[in-house]
Amino acid sequence: MGCKFLSPIWKTPGDSKMTLSNLIVDDLDAGVFRVHRTAMTSQEILDLEWKQIFEKCWLYIGHESELHGPGDYRRRTIAGRPLILIRNNQGEIKAFYNTCTHRGALICRADEGKAKVFQCFYHAWTFDNNGALIGVPDEAGYGTGFDKHEMGLKPVERFSSYRGFCFVSFNPEVEDLVSYLGPATEYLDLIVDQSEAGMRVVAGSNKYAIKANWKLLAENSVDSYHAVPTHETYFQYLADVGGVLGPRGSDSNGRARSLGNGHAVDEAPAPYGRPIALWHPMFGEEAKAEIEQTRARLVSLYGEERAKRMSETIRLFLIFPNLVVHDIVSITIRQFWPVSPGEMEVTAWELAPGEEAGKVLGLRLDNFLTFLGPGGLATPDDVEALESCQIGYQADAVEWSDVSRGMHREPQATDEVQTRAFWRKWLAMMEGHSDYRDPEVVRADQPPAPATR
Ligand code: FES
Ligand SMILES: [Fe+2]
User: Fold this and answer.
1) Where are the domains of the chain?
2) DSSP result, 210-241
3) Which CATH number fits domain 199-431: 3.90.380.10, 3.40.50.150, 3.90.78.10, 3.90.228.20?
4) Which of 99, 101, 102 is the pocket-test mutation for ligand 1 (most atoms within 8 Å of CB)?
5) Ion ligand 2: residues, Cβ under 5 Å
């Protein structure tokens, strides 16, 4: 693609100028990457995203720890489809469409719970927690062509999990999950390995809406460039209470990587303490022994270098298209869905080591609420920034957003290689290309981000 500012592009269906590739200017030699802002405002683009992206990718649905025992379930809406994630009596986790095979009513009408059976409230057909239809009132009313065995709940086309993170896909042909995740597994491992008892999602979640295009949160969630200016209040607060360990937002700290397949990470030295496992005076003396024990356990399990990386670096990472994991002070799982071109809904959960309790768990949950919570010290800043961008797009004479930062050098934490990773995969999927390649993928065998401050 040339570095020309073409006049768009996305007009009306059937318009001969309408091409998706003209929405992105990607010129590696010139160090220029731009995104046409209609990608954030067009209903036609969103319609195509549902079809080309959300119907084809692996999509996060929940965490195994949310389903402790047989019959535990979570109701989830994934890409607009009502689903149930359930652990059956055999202990297996399955994902079903949440619709009665009789005439369509939702068979599960609570967000979470435990059930041996689901009885549809409309005509009382009953399904077991493995999806089989086991009860039909007045079954004699059906003829010989009616076979209960064919009328069980429909499983989602594909279900798979990686180390507790469960995904579904509506695409029967989708590649296997581990191949899809690629080097992103390294970053999930860095989190999952923090606990020998297993990581668990703490009960409860945050839900909020943002009046901005969903892709803006994919960009923002792995963007360190905005951290210091946008979150000035938070960093000033940390400085006031002596909570900052080192510089933040400097180009010389950390690095960003495109992991391929649209996944990306920004990894940097922690500028503050972490329950895993970097004690800071702000956490109080009573938390010190437990945090230091955790650090010693990580060293004995994984060696000094990996334990240091797990403890002293933070990770913001994005699994394409809409799953973000923030391993900072707390570990937040965040997922977001478009409602319209200019609005999204966000859900966030907190992930904690299974063995963590008391004071240290309290510190983690406090950070989940007070930093990344919808009323916390960071998220309202981000919401304001994203909504401001969306309003700015109404000035449609200004057609392009610039995402070129760091394109000419080894990616650093405040660069935008993460954002370009997302957009390149987005364009490939929107165009239906299977030969996707991100020229800025950093090889997986490169050394990790420095953990020195
Ligand atoms: S719609 Fe469920 S039993 Fe009729
Ligand atoms: Fe932010």
Assistant:
1) 59-162, 199-431
2) ESS-HHHHHHHHT--TTHHHHTHHHHHHHHHT
3) 3.90.380.10
4) 102
5) 382
Q: Is the pLDDT of residue 13 over 70?
A: no
Strand segments, DSSP code E, in 143-270 are 158-162, 165-169, 199-201, 206-210, 255-260, 263-269
- For residue range 361-411, list pLDDT tens digits in order: 998 898 889 888 998 989 999 999 999 999 999 999 999 999 999 998 888
Distance 121 CA to ligand 1 centre (A): 7
Backbone angles phi, psi at 213, to 5 degrees: -65, 145
| pLDDT tens, position by position, 56-88 | 999 999 999 999 999 999 999 999 999 999 999
Residue 5 Cβ contacting ligand 1 at under 6 Å: no
Q: What is the pLDDT of residues 404-449, one digit of tens each?
A: 999 988 888 889 999 999 999 999 999 998 778 898 986 555 555 5
| CB count in 10 Å sphere of residue 388 | 10
Distance between CA 385 and CA 379 in Å, rounded?
10
DSSP 272-287: S-BTTTB--GGG-GGG
Cα distance between residue 73 and residue 70, in whole Å: 9
Ligand index nearest the alpha carbon of residue 231: 2
Looking up tokens 């279900």, which residue turns up?
A: 159
Between CA 318 and CA 296 the distance in angstroms is: 29
Tell me: domain 59-162, CATH 1.20.1540.10, correct? no
CA dihedral defined by 237, 239, 240, 241, rounded to 10 degrees?
A: 90
